[in-house]
Amino acid sequence: MKIWVDADACPVLVKQILFKAAQRTQVEMTLVANQHIPVPPDKNITSIQVQSGFDVADDYIVEQCVANDLVITADIPLSAEVIAKGAHALNPRGELYTKESIGSILNIRDFMDTMRSSGVHTGGPGAYGNKEKQAFANNLDRLLAQR
To answer: How far apart are CA 111 and CA 105, in angstroms?
Structure first.
């Protein structure tokens, strides 16, 4: 298992959890972003800067990931693509997307997108707090223990 991080919008707290987990478990981890993302000095942790542009980082992750890799992202279409390749997708709030759940999650996302484009204010996710941080850390540990 290798961990891929959609790092452009990944919260700092999540990156810190990931750095510690990668160092503790010696799992290879790559952060992908269209800007420089500093990483701690560790042979298993790398950062790749891709060109700017819509979905360039997402496309890179989809191309590189393989079955049983873990992708950390809040991007639902990216999650669907990596799940189709047999990889796991975990969002920074601790929700594990699965083959069984991703279809309905995509439908809800598309519906909300349509609502927003028609002028309806749908609000956004709540603040990132201890509950979300703990859910993420717990699911990450569970996935790493299964490798």
So the answer is: 10
